[in-house]
Every structure is written in structure tokens, then in C-alpha cells.
Amino acid sequence: MWEVFIRSKAGLDHKHAGSLHAADAQMAMENARDVYTRRMEGVSIWVVESSHIHASDPDQASSMYDPANDKIYRHPTFYNLPDEVKYM
Amino acid sequence: MTVHSFQEHFDSLIDREIAIEPKDWMPDDYRKTLIRQISQHAHSEIIGMLPEGNWITRAPSLRRKAVLLAKVQDEAGHGLYLYSAAETLGVSRDELYNQLHTGKAKYSSIFNYPTLTWADMGAIGWLVDGAAIMNQVPLCRASYGPYARAMVRVCKEESFHQRQGFEIMLNLSNGTDVQKKMAQDAFNRWWWPSLMMFGPPDAESPNTVNSVRWRIKRLTNDELRQKFVDVTVEQAKILGLSVPDKDLKWNEERGHYDFGVINWDEFWNVVMGNGPCNKQRLETRKKAWEDGKWVRDAAMAHAAKRKERKAKAA
Amino acid sequence: MNNKRTLLDYTLRLADDALIIGHRLSEWCGHGPILEQDIALTNTALDHLGRARSLFQYAADQFNGFPAEDKKEVFSSVTLQTLLASGASIGEDDLASLRDGWDFRNVLLVEQPNIDWGYTVARSFFYDLFNYLYFTELVKSKDETISSVAEKSLKEVTYHLRWSSEWVVRLGDGTEESNKRIQQAVNELWMYTGELFVANDTDNVMQAQGISPDLGPLKTEWLARVQSVFDEATIAMPTGTWMQQGGKDGNHSEHLGYILTELQFMQRAYPGMSW
């Protein structure tokens, strides 16, 4: 199994498009082209063997992501600035 | 956490319409139902390639040939997306194929009907894809994330399928007498099987209650069927075709069309393997799979050799 | 044949090659050994079909511009003659569906049956490699339409060649069985490769006018590249030297008749209708 990531146009991130079967990377790359870009969906492809992806455990979601919940100061909207200040 | 609280957590995700993802805990029944539903759908796409594939080499024009080829190819793609979604639930594509080939898994019984004339390409696109889209659009919001995402892709690609089918029918019904006859003949043969596509009546559909609760089914069989009849009867008028149902009548009170009794005896027989093409369809797929074994083996063997050589060189 | 007739003959050859190989590859749709490959092969079939359509449209334009007397002489098909007698002009579908077998100009290689994945891969490899080298030169054609078709096709063909070369290697250097099968396919199809490089009268006239490339140097290059892919695939170069030919002049194998029976069925059974 391989996971396919596609950049839909220059300047954008690669995004997960789906999965497929292939014997090796070369074949996976070509299959990805034939399966996932039939409607001009992409300009660049990454393929990754599914077994190489380590996924986080959803049961640990609270310890993984909740600590970020109260770090609101990381977001620009946390800071009140007068309306007159432009371009910031 | 006890199993009890796993269940509560799962239920609360479902209630809040939050997607369930592969690594989330899920009840066994949910997993089983999903595997059954997703793989049935995948099998239907793959078997569904065959009745239309029949006409690729005989398409009446090069334009129609290109469209049909692209459409049947899309079906292969949809099968692939859906098998991939099923695989996230811990079952392999090979195992699913095996279930199909041994007759353990079912697929949409509509594909056990034959495609006899070119007009069948029109009727399939218009009616069968039309019915399929009605079934599928709600599934883009199914509770299981990988399934919903696969369905979004499927529905996006599917939108041209019904249109090309209707266009074929329109062309025929504006054509010569024999073309009109061809269109009506195809309509006569595909109308009732299309209504059967929505599955048995709600009263006899054991899976509906849980499936609706789990948002892997969002409208009941009868609701979808009624919707399909209402929409399609109007489209048939545009084509100048008559619906092969003497009991069809607009019911002012209900605001829906009443329609005749579906031959459920035929439906169950086709499901059980007695349709006109069940055996032929399955044999064709089995043959493709068995004939392809040496090719798949070669690809794996070559990949292994290459890997080994690379490791040695490093 | 006058120059116009020769250009038509040449355009039809390019179109027929594309149509017939596309037809063969499309027969795999729904029957492939691997779902992903089913999709891949269909992409290729669609590329060929697209090229065939552009070329048939060009051929139809040429034909419709012929004087009435010439039109009568070009194709002997009764159905086409009836159509012409009605004063109608012809289109891409008439050329694909109403010409008789002897008016088809494709090489014998492309009409050979799929048989199995090995034969299909071998046939594609021989043809794709030829196409790649041929279209690389054809881009320089003095005929603008042909050169623009070649330019578009070259991108497609480059991918086709990569695909078929890799499969030759995969099968050759895969299992014992796959090696045996691809070797057999290569051996049996070999005698259809010679025709690709034999110039007939049409080729000679077209080459003299700078419309088609010189086939001589292509053959050397083709052989060298076949050898290099076969080396990697551990496949032996076939030793047979006898080559079948005739397709370019309308002498086909029995297979073409069956292809046309399916391909032309609708247009012949229901003449003059639009679909």
C-alpha cells in the first residue's frame, strides 16, 4: 500500500489524495499519475509507503493537542492594536 | 477506559456529527457494516465496468468511444478509492476480491442485466448512474472519514456520467424511428431494475436502523426510491419516452408519483445468482484475476530483486 | 497517386495506427491484472484515440477538398460511395467506420491480438519506442497540422514508452514464468517490427517533401534501445530475420477484419444516423 500526496498547483502544499497498490516506488509514482491526476489535479506527486507512516494515537489526543488550546498568544488575533495601524 | 466508555465516546462523536477515523475505537458492528457496505460498493464499480465495457469496441462514434472509455475507467478508479477506504478498516483488497469471487460478497444486482444495444449505454448513464448518485451524494457526509472522502471524489467524478447518458438518450429520441425504438426498448428494460437498486422496502430492510444512526445511510430505501421516481418521470417526458408502468400516476395529496408494485421475487432471484448475467460477470472477473496472477507475481518479484540489489550496492 | 492523394494516404496511416492500437488496448478495460494497471492502460488507449481523431479530422478535411472525380477513386467502400453520391462531405467517423479493410493503412504490429499481458506489453514496447523516435522527428514535419499533432503526441508517447519499457523489465526480470512469457511474446511479435522501418512509395514521397522522417537512421536507434532494455530485462534478442509486411499498403492479417466488424458495426448497421 502506498499513500499519494498531490500538489494541485505551484505554491500549494502537497495534500493527501488517496491510496493505491504498487510493487515499488516507481510503479507507485506512475499509478498515482494514472489514478489521481486524470483530471489535471496535480503538478507534483509524492508517494509514501503506508507502512512508513506513523500515526498518532487518537486516545492520546488530549495530551497531544489540548496543551496548545490555551496558548492563544501564538495567534495574531490575540493582540489588540488600534485600527489606525495598517499592514501588520 | 472501559468498553462502556469507549462506546459512549463513539456515540457522542456520532451524535455531534464528528468523523470517525481509522484509529478511533469503533464498535465491531460498525466496522463490519462499513466493510460490507464499502466493499459491496467497490465490487459494484468493478463488476459495473463489464456491461458498459461490452460496448467500448462497438461505440457508434469516436467521440462516444472516448467518453465511454473514460467513464468505464472512472469506475475502475472509484472501485480503487473504495477498496482503499475499506482497507483502512483492516481488511485487504485481496481478501475482498476473494469474497467477491467466491460469491460471499454481493454487488449491485443491476449489473447482472445484459447490455443489448447501444441505447443501453444511455439508459445506464441516465438511470443507473442517476440512481447511484442519489444513493451516494448523502454518503459524502457519512460518519466514517475515509469513506466520506472517497465518496466526495466519486461524486465529483460521477457528475459527467449521468449527463453523458442522458445526452445519448436525447440524441436517440431526436433521431430516426429505429433510434427512438432503441431508446424506448432500453428504457423498458432498465426502468424496473433501476428502482430495485435502492434495495428492499424499508419494512424488510434489517440494516437500515443502525445504518441511519451511524450516518452510513442517510435516507431510507423507500425515500430514495420515491425521490428517484419523481425526478426521473419528469426527465422521461423531455425524452418523449413512456414509463413502462401502467400504475404510474401523480398523487396530488402526497405530492409524489404513485408507482406499480416492484417484482421483489425477481430482485431476490437476481441477488441470489439467478439473474441473466450473474455467472458470466463473476466468471469474467475471476478470469481476469487468475490470468493476472503471474503478472502480479512478476511485479513483486522484480521489486524484491531491485531492493536487494540496491541494498547490496549501498 | 498525386501529391494530395499521397498526403491523404500518409495521414490515414498515422490515424489508423493510432485507432487500431487504441482499439486493442481498450479491450483490456475491465480485464486488467491489477486495478491500477487497468486505469493506466485506459489512459494510454485514450491518448491513442485522441490522436486518431485529430488525424481523421485532418484527413477528412483533405478529402472533402478533392475534386469530385478524385473522390470516387479513393475508397471503394460501397457505403462511402453511397454517402458521397448524396453530395455529403465526410467526417472522422466515416473514415473510421466506412472504409473497407484494404483501405486501412496501419502496420500489422498494432492489429495483433492482446493474448496476454506479456504480448500486450511487448507489442506496446515495440510500437511505443518506434513512435517515440518517429514523433521526435515528425515534429519537424513541413506539414503544420502533422507537426502539431506530433508535438502533442510526443509528450504522451514519452510516457507510454516509459510505461512499456518498465513492464518489459519487470516481466523479464521478474519470475521464471514471466521471463518465459515475455520472451515468447517478443519472439513471436518480432516479425511484425520490420515493417515499421520499410519505406513504401508513400513514405518516399513524403520524405522527399520534408513531411515525414527518414526511416533508415531510426531503425539503428530503435535496435540499440531495444537491446539495452532487453539487457536490463534479461531477455534475448530474437534471432528471426524474416519480416511480415503489407499493412501500409492495405494487406492485413486476419485480425483486422474482426476488429473492423466490431468497430464499424453501428455505423454500418445504421447508416447515416447521428449518435
Any overview of this molecule?
The complex is a heterotrimer of chains A (88), B (314) and C (275). Chain A contains two helices and three strands, in the order E-E-H-E-H. Chain A is of the alpha+beta class and 88 residues long. Chain A has a domain at 1-52: Ubiquitin-like (UB roll) (Roll), CATH 3.10.20. Chain A has a three-stranded antiparallel sheet, with helices on one face. The longest helix of chain A is centred in the middle third of the chain and has 12 residues, at 25-36. The mean pLDDT of chain A is 81. Chain B is built from twelve helices and two strands. The longest helix of chain B is centred in the middle third of the chain and has 29 residues, at 145-173. Chain B is globular. In chain B, strand 1 and strand 2 form a beta hairpin. Chain C has a single domain (3-269), classed as Ferritin, core subunit, four-helix bundle (Ferritin), CATH 1.20.1260. Chain C has helices at residues 3-26, 35-64, 68-74, 78-85, 92-98, 108-111, 117-138, 144-172, 176-189, 201-208, 215-233, 254-263, 265-269. In chain C, helix 2 packs across helix 5 and helix 7 packs across helix 9 (176-189). In chain C, 51% of the residues are buried. The A-C interface holds A 20-23, 26-27, 30-31, 34-35, 38 and C 34-37, 39-40, 43, 162-163, 166, 170.
List keywords for this structure.
heterotrimer, B: 314 residues, mainly alpha, two-stranded antiparallel ribbon, 12 helices, 2 strands, 68% helix, globular, C: 275 residues, Ferritin, 13 helices
**Helical proportion of chain B?**
55-70%
In terms of DSSP E residues, the strand content of chain A is 15-25%
Would you identify the CATH H-level superfamily of the domain at 1-52 in chain A?
Answer: Phenylacetic acid degradation B
List SSEs of chain B in N-to-C order.
HHHHHHHHHEEHHH
Question: Could you give the distance between the termini of chain B?
Answer: 47 Å
Radius of gyration of chain A (CA) equals 20 Å
Helix percent band of chain A: 10-25%
Instruction: Please count the helical segments of chain A.
Output: 2
Strand order of the largest sheet of chain A: 2-1-3
| Major sheet: arrangement of strands of chain B | 1-2
- Overall structural class of chain B, as computed from helix and strand content, comes to mainly alpha
Q: Please write the string of helix (H) and strand (E) elements of chain A.
A: EEHEH
C-alpha end-to-end distance of chain A: 46 Å
H/I helix tally of chain B:
12
**Main β sheet profile of chain A:** 3 strands, antiparallel
Strand content of chain B: under 5%
Overall average pLDDT of chain B: 93
Named CATH architecture of the domain at 1-52 in chain A: Roll
